[in-house]
Amino acid sequence: MTTDPLSAEEAPVTPEDLNEEDKVMLVFSYLWVLALVPFMVTRREYVRWHAKQGLILCGVSCLTFLGVIFVGAVLATLSRVFAWLFAFALINLVLLYLALALVCVIKAMRGERWPVPFLGDLIEKI
Questions:
Q1: Would you state the pLDDT for residue 87?
Q2: pTM attached to this predicted model
Q3: Nearest CA among 91, 87, 99, 118 for reference residue 30
Q4: How far apart are CA 116 and CA 108, in angstroms?
Q5: Upper half-sphere CA count for residue 70 (Cβ side, 13 Å)
Q6: CB of 56 within 8 A of CB of 122?
Q7: How far apart (Å, rounded) are the C-alpha atoms in residues 44 and 37?
Q8: What is the Cα–Cα distance from 74 to 33, expressed in whole angstroms?
Q9: What value does the CA radius of gyration of the chain take, rounded to a whole number of Å?
Q10: CA 77 remoteness from chain centre
Q11: CB-based contacts of 73, cutoff 8 Å, min separation 6
Q12: What is the pLDDT of residues 71-91, one digit of tens each?
């Protein structure tokens, strides 16, 4: 008797395997704190994996945004140049987050588990 090297949780998911509820939950997985909805509601492992990744991405981005805002506010008291630089950095961070979330949603809809670089190891620990 041979066993399948992929467990039920690791089995590849095709776009045809996803129903409408799964697709909505996958989009929610990458919309900041709305990632809590699929994390708590769904029982499907594939959707929960993306919800975990969305929660980690949300947490890291919130901490990064708050850090940039705090440092920018402190340095803005020294010069307006610092205020403009950190405002520019914050806008770029928001655009980076949106692009990363969009890529993650597209990959999730295709049935791929794409761990975000530098954050992918944390998913397995949750």
A1: 87
A2: 0.76
A3: 99
A4: 12
A5: 6
A6: yes
A7: 13
A8: 28
A9: 18
A10: 33
A11: none
A12: 888 888 888 888 888 889 899
Amino acid identity of 72? Answer: G
DSSP 8-state code for residue 16: G
Do residues 65 and 90 touch, judged by C-beta distance below 8 A? yes
- Please enumerate in sequence order all residues whose Cβ is within 8 A of that of 60, keeping only pairs 6 or more positions apart, or say none: 119
* Length of the chain counted residue by residue: 126
Q: What is the pLDDT of residue 102?
A: 92
Amino acid letter, residue 39: F
Tokens for 32, please give them: 């900041």
Are the CB atoms for 39 and 52 separated by under 8 Å? yes
**Pairwise CA distance, residues 126 & 124, whole Å:** 6
What residue type is assigned to position 115 of the chain?
P
